[in-house]
């Protein structure tokens, strides 16, 4: 090989390495939930901020469900309809649709691994790159340690909602809306299992924050609240943008901000007292701890949980008195 050939090979390798780095930076931030707390709404509007980039797929579940899975696993296959839609969109409109299409190709053709995960987030100078992943809120310490080693400069956003309302909304979505049935037709055992396994742990916000703060500095975790998102979505979105180091959103659409996304209103029913008590038993202690840091709104959440416990205790006592009289 001549000296010139060697230089050409070296330059090509350097360019190849540079290109790999540009497509393997990983996210700058994660929005870790909580589920049923406006995360789909945030994905919709943060994607339109010119200083931010989020992939077309809101959640990829890498650390919670995809790590170590094979090619075209269930979570990847779920993206195929959206990928086909982006193919049609790219053909008709070009622009951002082509970027979504290229992202979909990388997402679908790779076998989930750390390298594959990092490759999904482009290096975009002047922009913050991120992902919304509510399932990450309840990752165990070992998984959070892995994330911290892989992404040591990561910023975290966590949105909290009234813990009983959030848990019940999750139950309505998973057991009623996804099954196309009224919650009253769902067996009680299924609701109890959902509370124990998913709904209550995802609403135990103090426990979630404790775990994430063992992996990342408190200063790198931004907390927001669903009530504020409903009341003044522009302020919450701009607060997240400032935390991420970009300016306020320059072109939020007021009509779009007023539209609900991914709601369970058609399946809404009040929380039955028996399930309200079960949730309150599991959520009162972590919510009291949360109130020490965020008295507004967590003091109100605590009072509601205390009332749910007291009300069902009184009803139980009255029932017992009737039986024994």
How much of the sequence lies in strands comes to 5-15%
The largest β sheet comes out as:
5 strands, parallel
Question: Whole-number radius of gyration?
Answer: 23 Å
- Name the strands of the widest sheet in spatial order: 2-3-1-4-5
Give the H and E element order: HEHEHHHHHEHEHHHEHHHHH
CATH fold category name: Rossmann fold
In whole angstroms, how far apart are the ends? 102 Å
Count every beta strand, where a strand is a DSSP E run of 2 or more residues. Answer: 5
- What's the CATH H-level superfamily name? P-loop containing nucleotide triphosphate hydrolases
CATH class category label = Alpha Beta
Poorly predicted runs are 1-23, 315-325
Q: Can you characterise this structure?
A:
With 325 residues, the protein is an alpha/beta fold. The protein has one domain: Rossmann fold. It has 16 helices and 5 strands. Strands 2-3-1-4-5 form a 5-stranded parallel sheet, with helices on both faces. Helix 9 packs across helix 10. The longest helix is centred in the C-terminal third of the chain and has 30 residues. The radius of gyration is 23 Å and the shape is globular. The N terminus and C terminus are likely disordered.
């Amino acid at each position: 090989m001549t000296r010139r050939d060697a230089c050409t090979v070296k330059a090509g390798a350097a360019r190849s390495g540079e290109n790999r780095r540009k497509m393997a930076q990983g996210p700058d931030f994660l929005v870790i939930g909580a589920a049923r707390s406006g995360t789909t709404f945030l994905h919709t509007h943060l994607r339109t901020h010119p200083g931010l980039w989020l992939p077309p797929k809101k959640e990829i579940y890498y650390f919670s469900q995809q790590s170590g899975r094979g090619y075209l696993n269930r979570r990847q296959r779920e993206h195929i309809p959206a990928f086909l839609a982006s193919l049609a969109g790219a053909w008709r409109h070009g622009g951002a649709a082509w970027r979504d299409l290229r992202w979909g190709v990388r997402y679908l053709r790779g076998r989930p691994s750390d390298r594959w995960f990092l490759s999904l987030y482009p290096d975009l100078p002047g922009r913050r790159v991120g992902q919304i992943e509510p399932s990450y809120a309840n990752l165990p310490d070992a998984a959070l340690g892995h994330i911290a080693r892989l992404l040591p400069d990561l910023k975290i956003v966590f949105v909290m909602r009234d813990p009983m309302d959030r848990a019940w909304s999750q139950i309505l979505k998973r057991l009623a809306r996804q099954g196309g049935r009224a919650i009253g037709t769902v067996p009680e055992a299924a609701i109890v299992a959902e509370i124990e396994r998913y709904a209550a742990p995802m609403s135990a916000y103090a426990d979630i924050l404790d775990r994430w703060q063992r992996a990342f500095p408190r200063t790198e975790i931004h907390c927001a609240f669903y009530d504020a998102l409903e009341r003044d979505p522009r302020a919450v979105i701009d607060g997240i943008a400032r935390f991420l180091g970009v300016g306020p959103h320059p072109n939020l659409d007021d009509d779009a901000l007023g539209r609900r996304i991914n709601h369970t209103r058609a399946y809404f029913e009040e929380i039955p007292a028996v399930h309200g008590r079960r949730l309150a038993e599991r959520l009162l202690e972590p919510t009291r701890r949360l109130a020490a840091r965020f008295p507004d709104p967590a003091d109100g959440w605590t009072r509601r949980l205390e009332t749910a416990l007291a009300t069902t205790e009184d009803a139980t006592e009255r029932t017992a008195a009737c039986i024994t009289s």
